[in-house]
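protien #1 (seq + structre)
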Amino acid sequence: MAETKKMTKRMVFERVIQVIETTDVEDKDLLIEKLHNEIELLNKKNNSSTPTKVQIENQSIKENIIKELKAFGRPATATELMATETLKGYSNQKLTALLTQLNDSGAISRVVDKKKAYFSAN
């Protein structure tokens, strides 16, 4: 079975521009201009570098996670981190997601032992 690639808005707009350019359509230049404008709006939206409220909150939580991992002095699980005073209000899923992000960025290390993930500060 062939894998189909999902078309993004940008891809659709670019394809429509190609079709319009090869056909004799009324107001051809105006249509192309409008589509290029839509593509430019998508570019601006994707280049927005302002972090969201949740991203700012998550950064604070990540800093607390690293502090707690350093305080443990040994690899710890997400469940153990949940039991700490600073991280007790967060779910296992939330902490695991943030631990994964920290691991991917290289800020912490992850080791699996007997199907259990342990994290340690680098």
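ok now protien #2
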Amino acid sequence: MLRLLTISAVSAALLIAGCGEDDSSGSGDTAAATEAAAPATTTEKAAATGTEIKLAGSDFGQILFDGEDQAIYLFDKESGPTSECYGECAVAWPPVLTEGDPQAGAGAKAGLLGTTERDDGTTQVTYNGHPLYYYVDDPPGEVLCHNVDEFGGLWLVVDGAGNAV
């Protein structure tokens, strides 16, 4: 049964590969097709489940958003990668959390992505050393609370270099 499933998966991968763009490299490597059909390792699954961070246009220029188009902010009160936003602060400004390595989407720099552990054991995404947050009432694709002074500091959207806008 397992052999039948593997053969079906490889056949499906080869069929799908033929439906895409023209591959001018001429590579018909069945080992690559078999690799593509093989289940991901635990490490690959963890990396693949990480929160996506990307750049997209806004009224403030190109800024960070997540994969669901939620605008991302930093808290200027924080001078390092450790979050200082808990309790009521984290209700209004939820941290950008991840369950695997964060993923660099369009325009984001993978080398600037990182993580920090929060007091509750969850993992928060950082960018250029800044813990990242959402504003609770931002609809996807919109920025409602840039340059807002709350909880002892300013909340600012973040550019592609990881700086406050």
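The helical segments are 2-17, 30-37, 42-48, 88-92.
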